[in-house]
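Journal club prep, shared notes

We agreed each person brings one worked example of a sequence with its structure written out as tokens. Mine is Transglycosylase SLT domain-containing protein. I'm keeping it raw so we can talk through how to read the token line rather than staring at a rendered picture. Sequence first:
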Amino acid sequence: MKWLSLVALMTCFVLYACQGGKQQEECKFDLPQIKERGELVVLTTNSSTSYFNYRGEPMGFQYELALQFAHSLGVKLKLKVMNSSAEMINSLLRGDGDLIAYNLAMTNSGKDSLLYCGEEHITHQVVVQRRGKEALKDVTQLVDKDIYVYPGKFYTRIVNLNNELGGGIRIHKVEPDSLSEEDLITWVAEGKIDYTIATNDVAKINRTYYQNLDIGLVISFDQRSSWAVRKTSPLLAEAANKWHREHVNSPEFKASARRYFELNKRVSHGAILSVKEGKISYYDDLFKKYATTIGWDWRLLAALAYTESNFNPATVSWAGACGLMQLMPKTARAMGVPAGKENDPEESIKAAVKYIKILQNMFAEVPDASERTKFVLAAYNAGSGHVTDAMALSEKYGRNHYIWEHNVAHYILLKSHEEYYQDPVCRNGYFRGTETYNFVREVTERAEIYKQKIKY
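Then the structure, token by token:
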């Protein structure tokens, strides 16, 4: 039995060697052990380019690539969300994860403990401006212009550029607790400011929301970035490199890239079908039939459908939401939509109303009925988790968490800021709150227009 004692002793030694600090760097946990475990533990962070939760489902370009890679290995994906690059690296070296799926900056110091792998991605900073004849073509044209920038690397780069040009750029550093990088891009698109700076990836994603943006003017050197594993996981690094080489042109890879960086995220909208005949759409009878079950004016339900799909039952959104009421596949199944019936108008409306009823119960603590409807609309658009996060933030910072406008809405807008989505009271991470804020406003305003023009 001596050999059994020896095996037990060696097992304890390996477990000890794989715990914490410097000893973790000697841990030989590589691809064979991952396959034996049946799970790839991936570290990433919340952002519009890596991972976020949308309508209750995991989304994000890096998340989708990591999922595809895990499937190629024949293992499940387990995701751990970190707050920063430093936290991801420390967690990786401690053995809390196997791979960082994030555009991690490639540095000489990082090569001492990491193996960079997968796609070598090139990032740089760009000027975000509106398209047109007046769009800047050269950095020298920034002289005598007002540019609004987020603190940190963007502010540092524009200050250095201003010095290189001999001065003259009017630089406005915004407060990070009130505006995010993406908020400034929205301001540019809406004409509130003329110029800001963003990374090319974030700029590309935002251009899918605002087609009037020009992001072609580069103002920084290229920065190489990629995934990373521990230096003691060369087989995993080799597998990631091989997977990328063989799949970068695959339909799945291209579909993910197109979903986040190319597809227009906004639905085009048309007019009321016939004011004279009192018809909003071809589906008015269905709206009237099902709105009563949730105590809604049917014109509000119609306004929701209009905002979601422009009354087009064949619409499929960039995120995969289907049908007249744009339910996510998982939600549609849970609400009883039969397979293959996602585009059936009545099935879509019936399921949406069932989902709305669940949300009404979820936000039953909101005492005012009209306010509760705004919370329900926000949750329908964003997923309930982001709304409850915004409520928790509102309560924490002394605002009324039962009132939407200027209270909870204020914090749904701030959920794209690290300071807020990393707050301990938030459970659902990063979220682009601008879209939900606008959604609630658009649906409620559209419903009022319908009520004015169309008889009950």
